[in-house]
């Protein structure tokens, strides 16, 4: 295989492609969805709880098809899959702009979620693990920081589009733009594995000609052993609660408008949320390398308690509200950054993709429950206060769960299953 001395390793170009793709699909389309809830609800006379059922349907689709997505990514051309996926996700998002009934959101959420599985959930961790043998955490942090960076620009833009041109045109513009930008990026930068470019993964040393290339052993536990462990179920619950916490991002727009702020301000606040995600993704990648994933996760949960407390007790101050949402965005970066890093730290890389896909079911189940649940609480009480107190409780539980997960890892090591 060709060496890469004096050149930028293609792994970094793959990371660039992933960052743009996921930045637009997740930081743009996924996270902008919350800004549409209040205007669509008001215009069509749909309760926010009923409307957000489409997000639960998306979570069910994700839960059912995650294992299939992993197999498809192993078997088929990755670029073809991702092109189809972004068309399904962003195209369905655009078509929301043509809908007049809540059933349109329910139906289109199925292809949208199926596409998003590949684009926003699986592609990043899988390809980064294939392309980076060193600086894996940094690469994951950069990719998730791109979600925050793109979102910091797209969220205010989405808020302005809704305010100026209406929610229908805003859906169409954002969805079509994502397809137009992402498809060429996939073709230029995304490759399934280093061998397709005649390369070794970044950080794997080139051996002198004539010497046998020895593949480094992937340390960790098997899927069969992981599923019997305290660590597995602690991590599954951690991701469940972390996703339930992060799901409140979809309700930031309705929450802001419900306490008297305008839609333009809600868009700007979502920009602060995405800036927080950017900082959090970079910080978590760096901190995980320096102080470990466990300590980083605990710091993240404590930061979340501070942010949500500010939202409860000082919601009427625009500056503090914006700061609190920015900190909340910082914490929400845990889902995409700390989730994969904790999984590899606890279970190793031997059967990482299988274990992460199984634990990832917690992500999907949380969405099924939390997304409409928050909406129904608002519809019934006229306030998100009960939701915010529940989020604080989940943050505290997660501190306990991450501690139990690492105790479970030690038990796996003591039993000789980690090798």
From TrEMBL:
Chief localisation class: membrane
Protein name as it appears in the record: MFS transporter
Membrane topology, record value: Multi-pass membrane protein
Membrane-spanning parts: 51-69, 81-99, 105-126, 138-158, 170-190, 230-253, 265-284, 296-314, 320-343, 355-374, 386-406
Stored Pfam families: MFS_1
Swiss-Prot/TrEMBL keywords: Membrane, Transmembrane, Transmembrane helix, Transport
Record bears the keyword Signal: no
Domain spans labelled Major facilitator superfamily (MFS) profile: 11-410
Alphabetical list of InterPro entries matching this protein: MFS, MFS_dom, MFS_trans_sf, Proton-linked_MCT
Subcellular location: Cell membrane
Signal peptide location: none
Lineage top rank: taxon: Bacteria
């Amino acid at each position: 295989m060709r060496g890469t001395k004096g050149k930028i390793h293609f792994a970094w170009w793959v990371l660039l492609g992933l960052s743009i793709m996921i930045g637009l699909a997740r930081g743009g389309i996924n996270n902008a969805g919350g800004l549409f809830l209040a205007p669509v609800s008001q215009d069509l006379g749909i309760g926010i709880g009923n409307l957000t059922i489409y997000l639960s349907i998306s979570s069910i689709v994700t839960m059912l098809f995650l294992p299939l997505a992993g197999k498809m990514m192993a078997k088929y051309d990755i670029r073809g899959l991702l092109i189809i996926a972004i068309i399904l996700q962003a195209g369905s998002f655009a078509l929301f702009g043509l809908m007049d009934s809540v059933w349109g959101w329910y139906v289109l959420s199925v292809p949208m979620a199926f596409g998003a599985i590949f684009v926003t959930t699986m592609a990043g961790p899988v390809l980064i693990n294939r392309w980076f043998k060193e600086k894996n955490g940094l690469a994951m942090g950069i990719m998730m920081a791109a979600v925050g960076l793109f979102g910091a620009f797209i969220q205010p833009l989405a808020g302005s589009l809704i305010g100026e041109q209406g929610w229908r045109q805003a859906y169409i513009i954002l969805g079509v733009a994502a397809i137009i930008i992402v498809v060429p990026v996939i073709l230029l930068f995304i490759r399934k594995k280093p061998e397709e470019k005649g390369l070794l993964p970044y950080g794997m040393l080139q051996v002198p000609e004539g010497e046998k290339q020895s593949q480094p052993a992937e340390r960790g536990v098997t899927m069969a052993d992981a599923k019997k462990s305290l660590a597995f179920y602690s991590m599954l619950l951690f991701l469940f609660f972390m996703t339930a916490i992060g799901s409140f991002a979809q309700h930031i727009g309705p929450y802001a408008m419900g306490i008297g702020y305008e839609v333009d301000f809600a868009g700007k606040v979502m920009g602060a949320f995405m800036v927080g995600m950017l900082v959090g993704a970079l910080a978590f990648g760096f901190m995980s390398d320096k102080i470990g994933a466990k300590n980083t996760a605990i710091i993240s949960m404590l930061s979340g308690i501070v942010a949500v407390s500010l939202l409860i007790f000082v919601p009427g101050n625009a500056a503090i509200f914006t700061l609190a949402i920015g900190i909340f965005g910082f914490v929400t970066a845990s889902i995409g950054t700390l989730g994969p890093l904790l999984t590899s730290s606890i279970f190793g890389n031997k059967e990482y993709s299988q274990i992460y896909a199984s634990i990832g079911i917690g992500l999907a189940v949380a969405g099924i429950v939390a997304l409409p649940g928050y909406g129904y609480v608002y519809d019934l009480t006229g306030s998100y206060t009960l939701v915010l107190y529940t989020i604080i409780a989940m943050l505290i539980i997660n501190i306990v769960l991450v501690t139990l997960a690492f105790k479970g890892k030690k038990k796996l090591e003591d039993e000789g299953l980690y090798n």
